[in-house]
Design brief:
The complex is a heterodimer.
Chain A lengths: L6 E14 L4 E16 L5 E4 L6 H8 L7 E6 L2 E2 L5 H7 L3 E4 L3 H4 L6 H11 L6 H14 L16 H13 L5 E5 L7 H18 L2 E5 L3 H7 L2 E6 L2 E7 H6 L4 H9 L39 H5 L5 E2 L5 E2 L2 H5 L24
Parallel strand pairs in A: 3-8, 3-9, 6-7, 7-8
Antiparallel strand pairs in A: 1-2, 1-4, 4-5, 9-10, 10-12, 11-12
Helix pairs in contact in A: 4-5, 4-6, 5-6
Chain B lengths: L3 E12 L2 E13 L4 E5 L6 H7 L9 E10 L2 E2 L5 H5 L6 E4 L3 H4 L6 H12 L4 H14 L5 H4 L9 H13 L5 E5 L7 H18 L2 E6 L2 H7 L2 E6 L2 E7 H6 L4 H8 L21 H4 L22 E4 L3 E4 L10
Parallel strand pairs in B: 3-8, 3-9, 6-7, 7-8
Antiparallel strand pairs in B: 1-2, 1-4, 4-5, 9-10, 10-12, 11-12
Helix pairs in contact in B: 4-5, 7-8
Chain lengths: 349, 324
């Protein structure tokens, strides 16, 4: 833990203008990421969870410098990415790769699998010859569970699961040390999901690959990450060790999110869900804590003041006026989320 | 008597590469007021079931080779399009996967709901408006009266799916077919919609056929589940029995791939995925190429296995009497 983190993000903020008409007149501003800080230690995968619009994908792009932040810094192995000239930034990209949710949008339709895999190797001079790149491409494919016959296929000739495996193989082609996986499992069948999950686990163990895993699938997050950050309306509301966040969630939103996940062997409507309504629009964020209009615990202060993250004695942090004051209460509270419905209680017979 | 009785349904698609059998002798039934889940991976034929039993398959390329789909005693597959229209939409409602695609983007939602309502029930303008508002309120569109003139894009996807459910309920159906009604939705919104489906089901004594790839969703909502693999029914029974003691190795593998059931950080069990010759594919057990228990016998049509009263499977090597 004492080693310098691989990635350190501080006070990251990003907003997008909302424009109208052909003059692109600015009519509003969407605050998508607000004051987000976290760090990722090598070999300790961090997961970002949150619902659509919570800012997960924007954070992924900011961390990899695919988008420029409004405020805040991103350090990679101690180097401020803002200080890197364009040339060095391009060289750095070899180490940090991303796989997107929609492989059809991220693969070039005019390149076959071989060309897609070989291009990044040539770009970063990682292949010594044609035969070498061919051999590497074939190895990459077998790693992601595809075969040599797929080398000459084009994206439209592959199923969505196969395409996603090709984009993963392409990201791995430059042997990165840091991988951002933005909802890479959501379009896949359970068996293919399991294959990719196992590959990520193996890459972490064998090559020390570190990753930022973005997902709305809580079971996968628990399975794959050591640490988890829960996002709501562009801010981190809770961050800490995955085991602890899942067993004793402290933010009321985290609790509600865990309670809402459907799971095998559990019946809907046996218990009321914890929250109503939907997340706020980034165009009209509520004052104070953005969660207060839906929060069962909301008090006067929550409408006025934005809560800051506060660390408890277990090293987990929560941004909540109500829950921070009951500092690190170790006993499970009698809330529905802990009432025999926690994911931990679900053990096979 | 069953409300819906699907018997020996076989559907083929003709493709450039030849004929693909999407469904092969599918049997199942839905009793009045019962929620039945159909679970399967992509390509297992589950959406084809939803479309073919109400005569919505595009023919060609699809072709119903054999089978019956009896609703309240009448075979829907033998009815004329005109006769079908008196049942579909009115007595059988449908909720589709993508609400954005299911709603007309250039019509206000109030008009869309009112249009469907007026198809099914004769009523005056004022009453139609009241009915539209009450239906939208029922599915959880707050302030429905003020939002009748809003267009679909002005609603979130979760709200659009609520409107989709309202449309499906507008004919006061006895059976609701929901094909992956919550795939693109956020966790908390998905939970709200599952609650809504459970609520309308209870209030109206509706029968529901829920099609999903997600065992967790099926397990939350359904009483009975049909496990589909490559167009064949692998297992059929009460949800509790199937989940706690699945009979065929396929159901067991499907359950095992859910990460909630393994220790975090451990490898998940993965099934092999060999290349299968098309000629062999349509005989014997479809799962034998990937099955850990497969034997020579599995090339033949697997026998029916029964455990308890309504829990059935078609398998030579079911998990019976072994606790592992």
């Amino acid at each position: 833990m004492s080693a310098a983190p691989l990635v350190r993000v501080e006070g990251l903020s990003k907003s997008f203008p909302v424009t109208t008409g052909w003059l692109r007149r600015r009519v509003a501003r969407a605050d998508v990421v607000r004051q987000v800080s976290f760090s990722i230690t090598a070999g300790e995968p961090l997961a970002l969870v949150g619902e659509s619009g919570s800012g997960k994908s924007t954070i992924a792009r900011l961390v990899l410098r695919l988008l420029k932040q409004d405020r805040g810094t991103v350090h990679y192995r101690g180097t401020d990415l803002d200080s890197l000239p364009e040339r060095d930034l391009r060289a750095w990209r070899r180490h940090a790769q991303i796989v997107f949710q929609d492989p059809l949008a991220s693969l070039n339709p005019r390149l076959n699998v071989r060309e897609a895999l070989v291009a990044p190797m040539h770009l970063h001079r990682l292949a010594s010859s044609e035969e070498d790149s061919e051999r590497q491409a074939s190895e990459l494919l077998s790693k992601v569970g595809l075969r040599d016959e797929h080398l000459s296929r084009y994206p439209h000739e592959l199923s969505s699961g196969q395409r996603q495996r090709v984009s993963l193989a392409r990201a791995l082609a430059v042997r990165p040390e840091f991988l951002v996986a933005d909802e890479i499992l959501s379009a896949l069948d359970a068996n293919v999901q399991a294959q990719i999950v196992n590959l990520l686990i193996e890459l972490k163990a064998k090559l020390g690959l570190s990753y930022l895993f973005i997902s709305h699938d809580l079971a996968m997050v628990r399975h794959l990450s050591d640490r988890v950050a829960v996002l709501y309306a562009g801010r981190i509301v809770e961050i800490g060790s995955t085991a602890r966040v899942f067993s004793t969630p402290r933010h009321p939103y985290t609790e509600a999110l865990l309670a809402a996940a459907p799971r095998v062997g559990h019946k809907t409507a046996r218990q009321p869900r914890l929250i109503e309504g939907e997340p706020p629009s980034p165009l009209e964020l509520p004052n104070g804590c953005a969660f207060h209009p839906r929060c069962p615990l909301a008090q006067e202060v929550c409408r006025r003041k934005m809560p800051e993250l506060q660390m408890d004695r277990y090293g987990n942090s929560v941004a909540c006026h109500v829950r921070s004051s009951t500092e690190g209460d170790p006993s499970p509270r009698p809330t529905p989320a802990n009432d025999g419905r926690s994911l931990d209680r679900l053990a096979p017979k | 008597m069953s409300l819906l009785n699907v018997h020996d349904l076989t559907v083929e698609y003709s493709t450039e590469a030849g004929t693909a059998r999407a469904l092969d002798g599918v049997d199942f039934s839905v009793q009045p007021g019962e929620i039945v889940g159909i679970v399967g991976e992509s390509g297992s034929g589950k959406s084809t079931i939803g479309l073919s039993i109400v005569g919505l398959l595009r023919e060609p390329p699809a072709r119903v080779v054999s089978g019956r789909s009896e609703f309240d005693g009448r075979d829907l597959l033998a009815l004329s399009p005109r006769q079908l229209r008196t049942i579909r939409g009115r007595r059988i409602g449908m909720v589709f996967q993508d609400p954005t695609a299911a709603l007309n983007p250039v019509l206000p939602v109030g008009d869309q709901v009112a249009e469907v309502l007026s198809c099914h029930h004769k009523m005056g303008t004022q009453q139609l408006r009241e009915q539209t508002v009450s239906l939208l309120l029922k599915v959880g569109i707050a302030g429905a009266e003020e939002r009748l003139d809003a267009y679909p894009h002005q609603f979130s996807v979760g709200m659009q799916q609520r409107i989709g459910i309202a449309l499906a309920l507008s004919g006061s159906p006895e059976l609701l077919i929901a094909d992956e009604p919550t795939p693109a939705l956020d966790t908390t919104v998905q939970a709200q919609l599952l609650d809504l489906m459970a609520e309308v089901q209870r209030d109206r004594g509706l029968a529901v056929l829920l099609i999903s790839h997600d065992l967790a969703v099926i397990s939350e909502l359904c009483q009975k589940v049909v496990v589909l693999y490559s167009g064949r029914v692998m297992e059929n029974g009460p949800v509790g029995d199937v989940l706690s003691s699945p009979l065929p190795p396929y159901s067991r593998a499907l359950l095992a791939s859910t990460p909630a059931l393994t220790i975090p950080g451990e490898a998940l069990p993965v099934l092999p995925d060999p290349v299968v010759d098309a000629a062999e594919l349509y005989s014997g057990c479809r799962f034998r190429f990937r099955c850990p228990r497969a034997s020579e016998r599995c090339k033949e049509t697997p026998p029916e296995v029964e455990k308890g009263r309504r829990h059935r499977s078609w398998c030579f090597h079911p998990h019976i009497g072994d606790s592992s």
